[in-house]
Give the backbone structure.
Amino acid sequence: MPFKKDEAFLARAIATGAGEEPADLVIKNVTLFNVMDGSSRETDIAVTGDRIVGTYGSYEGAVTLPGAGLTAVPGFIDTHLHVESSLVTPLEFDRCVLPHGVTTAICDPHEIANVLGAEGIRYFLDASLETVMDLRINLSSCVPATAFETAGACLEVDDLLPFRDHPNVIGLAEFMNFPGVLARDPKVLAKLAAFQDGHIDGHAPLLSGLGLNGYLAAGIRTDHEATTAEEALEKLSKGMTILMREGSVSKDLEALAPILTPDVSAFIALCTDDRNPLDIAEEGHLDSMIRRLIAKGIRPLDAYRAASWSAANAFGLKDRGVIAPGKRADIVLLNDFEGCGIEQVLAGGVLANDVAFSSRGAVAPVGLNSVRLEPVTPGTFDVPARNSDTSVIGVLPGKIITEHLVKRLPVSGGKTLVDLEQDVLKVAVVERHRGLGHVGRGFVHGFGMTRGAIASSVGHDSHNICVVGADDAAMAHAVNRVVAMNGGFAVADTEGVKAELALPLAGLMSLEPFETVRSDLESLRAAARLLGCTLEEPFLQVAFLPLPVIPHLKITDLGVFDVDKFELVDQGS
C-alpha cells in the first residue's frame, strides 16, 4: 500500500527534496535518462517513502545504492494483461515479473470473472493490496463474453458498481463486445454510462471506418488488438492510444514497430496480453519488447517513453512514468541501456528482492472446485457424417485471429473423421461449469499433430475445457485428466497422459511457484512436439480457439461459431 500522504509526509518530502534532511534512499552518481526530453545526465536520485523527492543534485540518505555505470529509467507499465493467463497467482506473477522492470501492471481479471464472477474480482482486488508492484484493476466488462457459450458467471452493471471506488480500480476493462456497443444493447449501454467519468479500455479487432467512429463515441480510448500498421494508424488518427502487444500467442511487435516514431510515441504504450513464466524466463517481459524495438532501429527515447510515460498518461496515472520529484519511486536501474539489461528495480521506493516478497500478506485461493464434469468417453467426440464440405478453423501461428476454411473430410461408419494428410484434427469444447453435458465439436487446421491430443481448462473466454486431437481415445484421456486435476493442461496419446500441469485455482492458475510452472510447461512443450505439433505455443493456441469476438471461426460448447455472421454454423450436443 502507498504511504499516507498527510501533512507530516509532505513536510518531510519537501525537506528531503530541498536537501535539508537525509532521504530514505539515495541512488548515487547514476545516469538519469529523461523520457520527457531524451537527455542523459549523471545525478543522485533521492527517495522518501514511495516518492522521488530529488534529482539533478547531490543527496544523502539512510540507505545508499551505488549508481555509477548504471542508467535509471522509469518503471515499466504493462497496460493490458490478464494475470490468470500467466498461469500463476497474482503474488507469484509479482515475484516473476517485477524483476523484469514491470512496476505497474494493469490487469483485467476477465478470466477468473468468467468462472467465479464477483468472487474472482474480489480475489484480485485483495491480492492487489499485497503485491510489491502496483497491480491496478480494470473491472471486467464482458462476463459472459458471448451468448454462444456457457460461462460460469454473469456480471451486470450492478455487480460491478460496488468495486468502482476501490483504490486500485482504474475503470472498465476491455470492451470486447463491440457488436453490442454498435447495436446499442441496453445492458452494454448501462455499463458504458456508469464509467463515463473514468477510463474505458477498448478491444476492437479489425474495426474501422464509421463502425470504429461509433465505438469510440461511447468514450472508449485504447486498443490492444491492432495487428497491422494500417489498422493502428487509423485508430491513432481517431484519438485512440495504441497498446502495442507482444505476448505468448499474440505477437504484433513486428507489424507495429514501424509506427513507433517520434511524432506518435506519446500515444503508443506496451502490453503483453499475456506471457507465461516459460516465455518470461526465455525472453523477458516488457524488457524484451524494449530491447527488440531498439534493435529494430526505434529511438531509445520512444521505446522507453512508450513503456512508461505514455502508458501512465493514457490510464490517468499522473503520479508516475518519469523520474522526477513528486513522482512515485518506480525506477529501473540498467547495466545495458540499449539492451535493457536490468540490474535492480524499485517499486514505490521498495527494492524488488526476496525480503520484499517474503513480507507480503497471504491471499487465500478461491475456486478450487470449479470443474464440474463427469468423465468423457471417446464417443463423446463423434461427429456425424455429412455429404457437404466442412467448415474448418484455420489457426494462424502467433495470432489469435483465425481463418474460415472449407475442406472435404473423410467419412466412415456414419462419422466425419480427421484428415492428417490435410493437417485437420478434431477440436471440441466440453462445458465444465454446471455439468450440463454440452459438447461443441468441429475441426481445426494448423497444429501439425499426427497423433495424440492436447486439452486445456483455459479456454477464452468462458473457460470450458477445449481439446484438440488426432484420435478420440487420446482426447478422452486428456480431458479426463484435466477434470481430475480440477483444471489444467494435459497431453495424451492413446495409451494415456504424457505430461500435465495442474491449474486448480478456478481451473486457471497453479498454486505452485512460477519456477515449477515454468518447468512443467517445458515438459508439456516437449510432449506436444513428440505428437508432431509444430506450433510454438500449442497450449495457449488451444486456449484461444473458443475466443468469441476475434474473427473468424471459433469453437464453443454449443458448436462452431462464425464470428463474422454471428451465428452457429455447426450445432453441438
